[in-house]
Amino acid sequence: MSLRAKLNEQLNELALLSEQAMPDYLLIYNPWPDHFAHFKGPFSDEIIAPTGELNRLDYWLGRLDKVYRDAGIYPQTLWGMAGDHGLAPVYHTLNPELVLQDALKQRGVELKISKISSDEGEGPKITNNLNPPSLHGVDLVIASTAGGNYMLDFFNSDRGWQVQPLYQELTRFKVREGKALDMVSLLADELQESLDYLVVRQSDCTLDSCSVRLVGYRNGLRRDEMISRESGVIRYQALDAKGAPELLALAQSNPYLAPLSDVQLSAKQQLLELCLGSAKGCSAEQWRSLAAMSPRPDAVVQLAHLYDEDRAGTINLFPKEGFGYNTLVPGRHAGEHYLEKDAFIGFWGETVKPGQRLGPLDNGSLAPTLYQYLTGEQVEVGNNGWGYPSVLSSLN
């Protein structure tokens, strides 16, 4: 009885002390670089000046690092940090639905359009996410993400309103006046000055297979290209001209990175010939290796999976560099340009080899890596709910 009482006393004392100890897992979220870069621009003084948010973030990381060193637990600590996304500057803004409405009025057509989301700088458009107002009778529903992607939902599939229409169906869009319009051409033509390219389903899409069409203008000429995937193989080809597709600029070099070495140039040329020079296509890993040496890392693979869910919309618009769709702020993301994709992800600590550099990664790889380090359990994609791999094997 005395021993039990003593143990209870000591356990209570230990429980009180544990609240003052260093946590086994610490999560910190810092929103300020993102917020200031959206509202002031990614190259503003609020971001890159000596008193800007990047230096402020560096200061607090240093303070945290010192706390763990002073506590004597630094050798047992793995640090991981991921940026949500990069940001590109916006110099011109417009709302594509206004351009579309003007073009339709010139053709004697008026559609009922509903906008259900907003970008930074605007108030919310949906007031009740559990019981939103009915969209019955609406021809077109619009949503957007942070100025870099603009999504249009149409409801005119020949197979019914519950099925996403395909490219061919959108070339004969049925309007109330009984007319049929080529909505893909209309959008691409009217937005030619600001549109990088648009994406639409070429075929029905599932997790196993999909074909999407890219439409955009280059040097005043319309380009139609297709990305298709089947059984782990992805193909990217031009539909309207001989030669390689060019909308995703795979052959170009990234102006924000150091020039490619002779070895890298040789590897890139081999991948270009392998992936674009034949109809065989390439794996997702090969496409990522190729796109990593271009201005738009991972563009092919991400667009190949854009329509994994029906909720991805019918037509997705991606604006040119310097343009923002449906935004009031000078910083955008969600597009396909390098600055928007250039988010930081990294790990450090005494368990990480000095000088190691990770290649292109999804931000989703951060959590599985930390989990595997803390628990010792092997993370395997597709098992136990994991959708991203751990990169721990490359850190040891």
Largest sheet: 8 strands, mixed
Describe the strand arrangement of the main beta sheet, using strand numbers: 4-5-6-13-9-10-11-12
Instruction: Please tell me how large the radius of gyration is.
Output: 25 Å
Tell me the structural class.
alpha+beta
Distance between the termini: 49 Å
Number of helices: 12
In one word, what is the shape? globular
Question: Could you give the order of the helices and strands?
Answer: HHHHEEEHEEEHEEHEEEEHHHEEEHEH
For the secondary structure, the number of strands is 16
pLDDT averaged residue by residue? 89
- Report the portion of residues in β strands: 15-25%
Fraction of helical residues: 25-40%
Low-confidence stretches: none
